[in-house]
Each structure stands twice: as C-alpha cells, then as structure tokens.
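Hi C.,

You asked whether I'd gotten around to modeling the 80-residue construct. I have! Everything is below, sequence then structure, no commentary in between.
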Amino acid sequence: MLSKLNTSNKVVGAKQVKRALNSYDIEAVFIAKDAENKVTDEIKQTCIIKHIQVILVDDMKKLGDACGIDVSAATAALLK
C-alpha cells in the first residue's frame, strides 16, 4: 500500500491532509510513528469518525521517501 503513494493521487503534510479530509474522498491516511502527537492526533480522530483506514509507517523519513519527496513527512493521504 505504501508504494501507491509514489504513483497515485496524494497529498503530503499535516495541513494538506487535514484539508483533504474535509474536501476529498480519501482511501487511506499514512501516519509516521515518530511524528509528534500534537501534529497527528486530530488527523487520527477525524479518520476514526469518517471510517478512513489509518496506516502507520515506521518513521517520517520512510514516509517522505515513499511519497517521492526529499524531506520527511508526518502524514500523507491517498486520494480515491
């Protein structure tokens, strides 16, 4: 599933994921385990309420690499 982030429609970063959760159909949300809780807690809660799959990724660097960006990422969302 992580490999889909490099090829599919996606948004990367906490602000963009929060915006996407309110505006788009989301297939899954990826959250790095080492991201700060103050950044990810609201996103996790929204996913629970909207019944969106949450996939935990080992670390922010791995998530950034999977998204095809040169920096770490706390969250990313796969759009339907």
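If it helps when you're writing up: The longest strand covers residues 26-32.

Thanks,
B.
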